[in-house]
Design a protein that fits this description.
2 copies of one chain form a homodimer.
Chain A (H helix, E strand, L loop, with lengths): L1 H6 L22 H24 L8 H28 L9 H9 L11 H26 L5 H24 L10 H50 L1
Helix pairs in contact in A: 2-3, 2-4, 3-5, 5-6, 6-7
Chain lengths: ~230, ~230
């Protein structure tokens, strides 16, 4: 027992008794990691804004549409590439030095379930990466070309994101957040702030889609009722 | 250690080293439990069929609509009452002798996470009980009175049920199903068969709702395009 204990690799994650013997410290500092991450987000945002600017007079009129398009472009990249990397390489992540892995190792200070292959986090992230990821790109496409599938796609992805995020927060909070470094920086900034976007934005977009879909069903409904009445009076 | 081990309450659940010291064996036999459960399901089904029969010539025309109405009535009761009971009393369930608890204790042979308050199962079941439960009743209501909100509600609840069920199956299967008695009766009948309905039926109903909503959006879309063109030619 004591021999095994001396062999244990020391790591900065919570809970402190978590065994992560394949852990290797990041070569990037926290600052480096955040700079890399926000530079990547910035590049995607600039690309999306250049694209959407070309449709500012047609399908993406107004700030709301421009920002929604940007949101789905960002979601597509974050879900598919960043979360997809975790979904595929979760088992070896703690010892991995690829830059996407270093981002996860930094983030995991606020949630060690990403390094311990927690079954819920793993399955939820795989669904997010490989179902909601492509669906985010489709929704951006559907907005850009104004296709009738846009609000159906927007409702599906938004509900998926909200449900995933609610489960994500509550499954550890109900246990007293044992997977999180209690320092406010990690708890409120990484765990809280970084994820809250996937509660707030999809809630707004989902209610927006529900309104559009409800109105369309009402129009069809009224036309059908009018059709039945017309038939009766023939 | 050995003193604690002798004090442990013996139980029939997996994994065998699971600590459930508040466990008390059911007073109902397996047969009793299934008879009670299926009698309750039968009564709800008869009630729903009597209700839906009255609308067989109007809003619930055809076998498909009658069965869908029955499905949502059943889902409403199962989610809200049966799963709601777990959501509220999970902590004491292993020692509880109320008939809903005895159903859970029998079912838990195929998944002990219901007796150990597994954080994912708990949060997922609470959402199922208190969000999808009322929404199932609303969807049945919307079908019965043919309101325009029906397909939006049907899409939301179906996706919620599928996502919950996929996570439910895979979170234990990815670990090799350690929470399940390996006997085929429990694995294939309780764990497999009892839950597969919430994959199959919502998939059919979700694709049905997507079709209806997509068509409605297309109609509105065409009318808007025609409106814009008419304006241009004025």
């Amino acid at each position: 027992m004591s021999q095994a204990a001396t062999k244990r690799v020391v790591h900065p994650y919570y809970p402190v008794d978590l065994v992560l013997d394949h852990y290797v410290p990041n070569t990037f500092t926290m600052k480096d990691t955040l700079i890399v991450l926000f530079s990547a987000f910035g590049s995607i945002a600039v690309g999306a804004l250049i694209l959407s600017y070309q449709r500012r007079q047609s399908t993406l009129k107004g700030l709301g549409n421009q920002l929604t398009f940007l949101w789905y472009a960002m979601c597509g990249f974050i879900h598919f590439f960043l979360e997809g990397y975790f979904g595929v390489y979760h088992r070896t992540l703690a010892g991995d030095q690829f830059f996407l892995a270093q981002i996860w190792k930094e983030y995991a200070l606020s949630d060690s379930r990403y390094l311990s292959s927690d079954s819920f986090v793993l399955i939820m992230e795989r669904i997010t990466a490989f179902a909601w990821g492509p669906l985010a790109f489709y929704t951006a496409y559907a907005m850009y070309f104004n296709t009738p599938g846009r609000h159906v796609a927007q409702l599906i992805i938004s509900l998926g994101q909200i449900y995933g995020c609610v489960l994500y927060y509550l499954t550890t909070m109900v246990e007293g957040s044992p997977h999180c470094d209690p320092h406010p920086y990690y708890y409120y900034f990484y765990f809280g702030f970084f994820n809250i976007f996937w509660m707030v934005v999809p809630s707004i977009l989902m209610s927006n889609s529900i309104k559009h879909l409800y109105r369309a069903m009402k129009v069809v409904h009224q036309q059908e009722t009018a059709g039945v009445k017309a038939k009766k009076f023939k």
